[in-house]
Design brief:
Layout lengths: L13 H15 L11 H8 L3 H13 L3 E4 L5 E4 L4 H13 L5 H19 L5 H13 L7 H20 L4 H20 L8 H20 L2 H31 L3
Antiparallel strand pairs: 1-2
Helix pairs in contact: 1-3, 2-3, 5-7, 5-8, 5-10, 6-7, 6-9, 7-8, 9-10
Length: 253
Amino acid sequence: MQDKTLASPKRIKRADQIVESIKRWVAINNKQPGDRLPNEKELMEQFECSKGTVREALKSLEVQGLISIKTGPNGGAVLMRVEFSKASELLRNFLHFEQPCGTEIYALRTLIEPEIAALATPNLSAEDLDELQALVDRCETPPDSFEERMAQRVAELEFHVVLARRCQNSMLEFIGRFVNDMIRDLVFFKKSELPEQREFSCANLNYHKRLLSAFRAGDAEQARELMLQHMQSAEHFNRELEGQLNQHFLTPQ
């Protein structure tokens, strides 16, 4: 039997090696979206490989969303900024079979949302405050249909997305928006089965109103404390909803 400790490492395909080399080249040279990669001939010469291998590497970069390949005389590979929606979808696909529960997701929100709220406070423009107010207003009236109920849940989440976009911390922004996407999935895939949770909705609305007042006053510390209370409240309601959801699926329909 072969000793696994002596087994040869898995060989990396030449095209994959080129992909990693191009990524390093982009980072080292501080290339930006819209910049062009060297053309196929230059890449073939640089990596001493065939046209087919270069094209395989470029196709891989295109699938990853890092480049766009244009055809024609002035064509070639152009660097692209990966869209948040694509990155979020891929990561949610990765977690799909891990099935993180609402409790785990809300625990993460409790850690990050207060900091996002505090960081966003001094960066919110008049237009941002108007947008937050409109989202709050959208949730004032009890919904009269399932569609309106789902629209209000989305508006509640969008309130937090606006803050994430203004926190001026790229990692927190991504995590905050991603976690809200995860909750949106929970709302539409699971919790839509449950009846309207008006007490939960009223608590969310109350906290959003108080947060908006803190934002208008430019009080970052108050925003941080209110958001912490909001997330603790939401986590509490979520535990109750998870219990109701489990009971719902266990009960014969």
